[in-house]
Amino acid sequence: MKCPDNIVLYMHEYLDEEIDEHDEQLLKKHLQTCPKCQSYFHELEKAIALVQSTSHIQAPSNFTENVMARLPKEKRRVSVNRWFRHHPLLTAASLFIILMTGSLFSTWNKDHEFSVTKQPNLVVHNNTVIVPEGEVIKGDLTVRNGDLQIEGKVEGDVTVINGENYLASAGHVTGEIKEVNEVFEWIWYHVKKTSKELVSVFRDKE
Amino acid sequence: MEALIKKRIKQVLKGDQSAYGEIVEIYKDKVFQLCYRILGNRHEAEDMAQEAFIRAYVNISSFNIDLKFSTWLYRIATNLCIDRIRKKKPDYYLDAEVSGTDGLTMYSQIASDTILPEDEIESLELQETIQREITKLPEKYRSVIVLKYIEELSLNEISEILDIPLGTVKTRIHRGREALRHQLRNV
After folding, report:
1. Helix B123-136 vs helix B106-113: angle between axes, to the nearest 10 degrees?
2. Would you tell me how many other CB atoms lie within 10 Å of the CB of residue A80?
3. pTM above 0.90?
4. Does the first or last residue of chain A, that is N or C, have fewer Cβ atoms within 10 Å of its Cβ?
5. What's the pLDDT tens digit per position in A19-39?
6. ipTM score here?
């Protein structure tokens, strides 16, 4: 029996799933009757199966690390940006701290001049604030960069920043007395004051 | 999957190197396998696969984001491997007559090499044999066969990767299959 022309081509077209229907019928019919072509076709199929059977191999370990190590260096800016992206909480916290210290120090520096809460009845003498005997100060009293001498009565809190507070035996303070001298003490005071203010804001709202 | 790759590529384009690590992780096995099957040597395959990833990274700005990244990457890897083969051209050709014989080609030599009793062949040994036979294919058939039967890519994609017409891909696959049939029929 004579094999049709192009029968091997049809086999390949069949294997590539590119054969048209007419040729496919012809190929199938022929393969059923021709042992020679049948074994030829099986050899092709076997070769494919063997090639496909090669188990899937994996890249060596550390492959990715090795590639990454050999890449040209990236720009510094990007790695900093990525760090910020990957640590949002730390970024927020550090930003907060930077801003807070910044504002605190600027307030601290600004505050190096002598100042005192405006209250009637106060006597100011050479950076020393005096609450004269027999006088009553209504409200809080804050002295910055100066001393305070209380001989009368203060109905409220007394705060002395960068200064000293002399409470005469006759003097009387109804509220708290605070002395702030160092930067950190001062910061602590600032934080407490801010939170107190916040609390009072909320209280006012209620 | 493709969407994830595109996202990572955009990050890489912005200069984020670590995003590229993920791309390498995803494709490393496929690229390594491609190189190994074409070159037949683990050491060379690792070198070429790494080189392919590095070249892809360096040239990432020339990659058209609307195309399939894997096609582009395989193209780089295949070209590197083909260049490698060409640089160390074997001193024999399969089709060439073996000197001192009458019309015998290397094909017949190979076949006699590989006849082993079926039940004695360990799976690993068989794998090695098959790999050896793939490596014996001329480079132009080898790359199409590996892309088609090991990477399981479509003829169209192979044509894109190798930058040759579809018709040429088909012809090469036919010839590669013929050669393999010849080499592997006694395995």
Report:
1. 170
2. 10
3. no
4. C
5. 999 999 999 999 999 999 999
6. 0.76
- Residue B63 to residue B6: CA distance in whole angstroms: 11
> Which residue is it, tokens 């040729």?
A23
Say how far apart CA A176 and CA A193 lie, in whole Å: 13
Secondary structure, 3-state, A118-167: CCCCCEEECCEEEECCCCEEECCEEEECCEEEECCEEECCEEEECCCEEE
Chain B contact probe: residue of A16, A40, A54 with most B CBs at under 10 A: A54
C-alpha distance from B171 to closest chain A C-alpha (Å)? 9
C-beta atoms of A57 and B32 within 8 A: yes
B181 in contact with A, Cβ within 8 Å:
yes
Minimal CA separation from B104 to chain A, in Å: 21
What is d(CA A10, CA A18) in angstroms, rounded to the nearest whole number? 9
| Interface membership of B21 toward A (CB under 8 Å) | yes
